[in-house]
Design goal:
With 534 residues, this protein is mainly alpha-helical. The protein is built from 19 helices and eight strands. The strands form four sheets. Strands 1-5 form a two-stranded antiparallel sheet. The protein has a two-stranded antiparallel sheet with strand order 2-8. It is globular and about 65 Å long. The N terminus is likely disordered.
Length: 534
């Protein structure tokens, strides 16, 4: 299988290190060119491709999609809670008990800015490279898109952050104010729009590891939906843009929903691509697990280990170990139960756990919040030799199902009610799930149906929190609605499960966004804490 990272991990890390001076690292005391000087690097296609791999590599650090961003910062909401007792939620983002000194907040911030700096260095030196101009254009498009995407993750997560459009060269001259939220989003949208026709539109079609035209257009729809909603409040013009870009992906005809609900998740776990349906548009691709590979090649992935079904076997060979930290709430369970026959329930919420004897043990009907995310299961990994904590499982960044639901939502917003296209999109997803199709709804009813369908289809994929924020209902959904659900008689007793009550009780407006890390504020004298955390 073709990989973006098939070069030696050590070589990639060396390349990344030479380009990876972060925005304002307080420990930096050398220039970012200790190992490779830009004057002598970036001279040909091979070197620029290596540099581009360094930009991509940001996605697969533990601090980004390996664990911190994907799980700790983004996967606790009204549908997913961190299944541990209250004391283990103290000072943690997944317990809404964090502060600006939290190590996971800093780790993700720092790593995303390193990725931005890697992109800036490549873009600043690309013109001098001796290579075919079409290849140069593609590399430029991928680097610009990734730079814009990393900025979007920062803006979406921290509200207002510095836009860094030039590489970091002088630790003593690096202070920068935060860019206003709306201004930053408008720049991100413009950057991505300019990349649409620069990136590949054929060779990468069947590879979700690479940025291709449909990747850019699908993510553009996501950014435009954020720009339309809270707190940017761009409204109808940006819903129109979201609808346009999502529909461009749809009209390409390159993606379909796989009728086998298990297939996409088994492919991500086993390091294979579904080239027949191509439902997965963009993934963070992990490989190796630090013990079984035997060649020293691995990424920092914990997908299937921290998030995934509960699996307690440490023997090798075997099905593998998973903590199953991320569990379904009663709100998610009831979204499925309110649509009897929804085939997704037992795929997305595992109906069994695997005990320390490597045996499947079914949950009782009354055991609901004790279960765990079922999308990522280590039993589906290709190798029987599994390291306890590190996995090769990929993580979805953009799926075609998300594109269809974004299009349905945007169509409803633009037209003050669902259109034929909006019904077509949502009903395609519902039909695959085995539940009745929709028709004859007004604006408000359809809007709620789209929100519920996004919950059912996209749970545990680092999207729900940001949906709640842009819909302007984050506090209500968690403090009020989930808070009430934790008092329901069906919620399991015991410290391991009732810790969620403290999480809901602590939730405030400030928790829509993350605090600017203390380490960044200490070295960037022009940057102030964002308004939600002052």
């Amino acid at each position: 299988m073709k990989k973006i990272y098939r070069n030696s991990r050590n070589l990639l890390l060396a390349v990344c290190a030479c380009m990876a001076a972060t925005s304002c690292e307080d420990f930096l005391d050398t220039t970012p060119y200790d190992f490779v000087a830009p004057e002598t690097f970036y001279t040909n296609e091979k070197e620029c491709t290596m540099a581009l791999a360094g930009v991509y590599y940001t996605l697969v650090y533990e601090e980004v999609y390996g664990n911190y961003y994907s799980c700790m910062l983004s996967n606790v909401d009204d549908l997913s809670y961190y299944q541990r007792q209250s004391g283990q939620l103290t000072s943690q983002v997944y317990g809404n008990d964090h502060n600006p000194g939290n190590q996971h907040v800093w780790g993700t911030w720092e790593t995303l800015y390193k990725g931005i700096n890697n992109a800036n260095m490549l873009l600043e030196n690309l013109d001098k490279a001796d290579m075919d101009e079409s290849v140069k254009t593609r590399i430029r498009g991928e680097a610009r898109f990734l730079r814009a995407y990393y900025h979007f993750l920062l803006v979406q997560g921290w509200h207002e952050v510095p836009l860094r459009k030039e590489s970091f060269k002088d630790v003593n001259n690096s202070a920068m104010e935060a860019t206003p939220h709306v201004e930053a989003l408008d720049w991100i949208i413009q950057e991505m729009e300019e990349c649409v026709d620069m990136v590949d539109d054929s060779a990468y079609d069947l590879s979700p590891s690479y940025v291709k035209k449909n990747t850019v257009m699908g993510i553009l729809a996501r950014v435009c939906l954020w720009r339309a909603g809270h707190p940017a409040d761009g409204g109808k013009p940006f819903y129109e843009k979201a609808a346009y870009w999502a529909n461009e992906v749809k009209k390409s005809g390159k993606h379909r929903l796989n009728p086998d609900l298990y297939k996409i998740w088994k492919c991500m776990a086993s390091d294979t691509y579904d080239t027949e349906y191509n439902e997965s548009i963009w993934e963070a691709e992990f490989f190796g697990n630090r013990s079984a590979d035997g060649q020293g090649n691995y990424t920092d992935g914990r997908i299937g280990n921290v998030i995934g079904n509960i699996q307690k076997c440490t023997a090798s060979p075997g099905n593998g170990y998973s903590y199953g930290f991320y569990a379904p709430t009663l709100i998610l369970w009831d979204l499925f139960e309110n649509n009897p026959g929804d085939m997704r329930r037992d795929v997305y919420i595992a109906p069994y756990q695997i005990n320390n004897k490597d045996e499947k043990v079914d949950w009782k009907e009354t055991q609901i919040v004790q279960r765990a995310c079922g999308k990522f299961r280590r039993e589906w990994e290709a190798s029987s030799q599994k390291e306890k904590n590190w996995t090769p499982e990929n993580y979805p960044i953009l799926r075609y199902a998300d594109v269809l639901l974004m299009l349905a939502e945007a169509e409803n917003e633009v037209n003050d009610g669902p259109t034929e296209l909006a019904y077509e999109c949502i009903n395609e997803i519902r039909s695959r799930a085995g539940i009745p199709t929709l028709s004859g709804m007004d604006y408000e009813t359809f809007k709620q149906e789209v929100r519920d369908e996004r919950g059912r289809e996209l749970c545990f994929e680092s999207l729900r929190k940001y949906d709640l924020v842009r819909w302007g209902i984050y506090v209500k959904a968690i403090h009020d609605d989930l808070g009430a659900a934790t008092q329901d008689s069906r919620w399991a007793p015991g410290n391991q499960f009732i810790g969620a009550r403290d999480y809901t009780a602590r939730t405030q407006e400030r928790h829509q966004f993350l605090p600017i890390p203390t380490k960044e504020l200490d070295v960037n004298g022009k940057l102030q804490q964002n308004e939600y955390w002052r």
